[in-house]
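re: ur question from yesterday

yeah so i grabbed the chain u mentioned. its 131 aa long if i counted rite. heres the sequnce exactly as i have it in my notes:
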Amino acid sequence: MKKYFSLFILLAACTTTKNIEPNQEIEIKEESTQEFIINGKTNSIRLSKIEDSRCPENVVCVWAGEAVVTFDLLINKQPYSNLQLCLQCDQETGIPQELNIENQTITLVAVNPFPNTENVEKEQIAIFKVN
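ran it thru and got these structure tokens back, copy pasting raw so excuse formatting
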């Protein structure tokens, strides 16, 4: 029981809540949760995975690549699991760059840092915009 209580405290400490305005950007690290209050309602995004196959900026590639972000969302107390948004995806993948859920639009704005052969080990951050 003591282990579970400690884990709960650790998880709660890792989650922060931000008051945001519509169209304000939210940065989230991979395997992190960001709670946010927009229009007086508390919501959250849990970023589980970033898959970044974009062509590194200091390399010449045949294919530009894409960045796919997988996340869970809690909007108006309603959970949505295993959602995906994509940067630079073509229509054939079927993965959009933005979703409309519960009168909220969630847009994937960027995945940073942009791939480079010199920053392979850097922690990735997804940037979302909510309105």
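noticed a couple things. The first strand starts at residue 16 and ends at 19. also Confidence is low (pLDDT under 50) at residues 1-13.
anyway ttyl
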